[in-house]
# Entry
Amino acid sequence: MTHTLTAREREQGERFDAFYAARAASPLVAALYAEAMGDTYPHEAAPFSSCDWAVLAAMVSRLRLRPGQLLADIGCGTGGVGLWLARALNTQLIGVDVSATAVRLATERRAAFIPTDRARFHIGSLETTGLTDQSVHGLVCIDAFANADDHPAALREFHRILKPGGRAVMTRAIPHHDRHNLQQHTSAAGLTLEHTVNRPEEPAVWRRLYTLWLTRETDLRHELGHEQANNMIAEAQRMLPRLNTRQALVITLTRPLTTAAG
# Structure
């Protein structure tokens, strides 16, 4: 079941289409992520996110999936993290992303990880994934939650598609001392905040990465074109001053076995 995008989601999808197409055409951006992360970078998954070996380990541990169960990767991008997890856990995989280009690239990567009939990808948003009720045993969302226009609606969608007892494991950066709102929004969606892990090393990774983008601006313009380079430089300049004001977390949410919500 595939979600028909709203006008706002189509606009977002087109922006990410250009983003993924430019990065797929050049190895430079992945190389800069690898340089910023050092030996914590999972080269095979090759994420354009803060996902490192520690995050992968946390997800394997927190999802608690059994072989053959269905894992959803929401905001999957080019699919490397979800495919890596599906192989490690011996699960089925469904990936959802607002970008048609990301969905195509993820689909093309399947055979490098698992048999192609064990993974599929389609277009959808965080708020409307296109998945059926209570259809997945677990889900991950890597650095994508901030892209949702309506965070409470995205959490309600996670609740809707999870089977009772299923877990959502996500990376998210929130302002310091904002865990009360996190707890409040989670409970309102019918989910339980089961576990959080601080990632104190994450801001330093982004600081190194953003600094690399700024120092390699000429190379980025040559490899990616001015529009994508401009977007990256603007992101680096906007986010560098904010890194010390936020905390990075790996968050585990659970849909209770019995709940009054949905």
The mean pLDDT is 93. Residues 7-24 form the longest helix (18 residues). Residues 51 and 114 are 20 Å apart (CA to CA). The radius of gyration is 18 Å.
